[in-house]
Amino acid sequence: MTMDGVKQGETTISQSIVANIQLGLPATVSKLSAKMRFIDRVAPTLKDGGVIRNIELINPVTINATGIACSSRTSNAFGGILYVAGAVRQDILIKDGTIYKTSQESKVEVDEIDDLDSQKKLKFIDIINVYKLLTELMEQDEKPELVLLEVPILLERADAPLDTRMDIVNIYNKCRKVILKFWEKYKDDVYPFNKNGVKIASVGNKRFGAVIFALSDENMKYIPDEIDKNITEKIGDLMPKLQEVGIKRLMTGILVKRTRTAAFQYDGINKDSRLEPEQLRDIGLMGMHIKAGNATSPLLVEVLGTVKDWNTGMLDELASQIISLITFDQSKALPMPLWYAKYALRPLEATDNGKNRILEYYKVQARESLKNEELESIWKENLDVFEE
After folding, report:
1. Which CATH architecture is the domain 63-207+254-347 placed in?
2. What are the tens digits of pLDDT across the range 203-252?
3. N or C: which end of the chain has fewer CB within 10 A?
4. Is 72 helix (H, G, I), strand (E, B) or coil?
5. CB–CB of 303/265 below 8 Å?
6. Cis bond leading into 277, ω under 30°?
7. Please, what sign has the CA dihedral across residues 43, 46, 48, 51?
8. Which is nearest to 49 in space by CA: 233, 207, 208?
9. How far is Cα 59 from Cα 322, in angstroms, rounded to an integer?
């Protein structure tokens, strides 16, 4: 089929793109420049007010630290999803800046689930695996000084599934029980509840900029660091402009190399947080953001406790230990034990032609078993016992 006719004044998409770039670029650059200038103006106010604190490195580093990382992969199969989930615990003893000793433990499980809310299920499974390794660690005679987790220490109410979804509710409840059992048994062996206890901290990247929203007269009691009382009024006046600039952009601009934000008691400044398990809500959850290098991403550090349990010196020491363990100034850099733990998970994530090796092998074996009726024979053996 051919199309003939006169083309009338058409504008191609390529022409539209070029025109909009030429016309829009000056306005975009102008807006970005104005926002950057605003950040430069407000940064000294926040730093002088105690919202941003400098952190000293431990030099040379001597610390016994552990990182626990997790990972999971899925594959569609048999009308549902096959998954492989694993967690690795990497112990590292560093003396005078040199790795003196390392050891590793791991957990892996392969199974099937239905595909509804599969990501939530895997999140709970990952947390369960991490807490299993954490429990084994706490039973050891020789414990590390610092343990860094890749998963949240506690769940939030937003994680709770609908009551009608019994399959995911069961996994969620199991996850809650594992967390509750751990803290009921080991809380008194963990810092700051025990001054000689193990420091357990979660390292992630959520709630970026939460401390800015905590800078109000009502919330100052939930900040353990000393903050200039006048900062709340200044922030109140600047809040509309801060929101226009973007809290994330602001925090990225003011958090520089080897710094941390003032800490905040998350469950205090956010009354709707409803931490889970609910039996642990009174313990409290503290958070602060740290930045190790010029190129590294800001990280959220969370620990259990309230403003009564933590003070500035304790938080500075924790931030110093974590920052001192980040040895590379790269965007994806992590504290060394956590980085090694994530690296050890690579076999679990290995693929061939975009397909997970473990799950493809598992799928083939399951399919063969189904074909050969091996599973059916096993089930019948069990039924025969009752028939007799």
Report:
1. 2-Layer Sandwich (3.30)
2. 987 777 778 878 888 888 999 999 888 887 887 777 787 778 777 787 77
3. N
4. strand
5. no
6. yes
7. negative
8. 233
9. 13
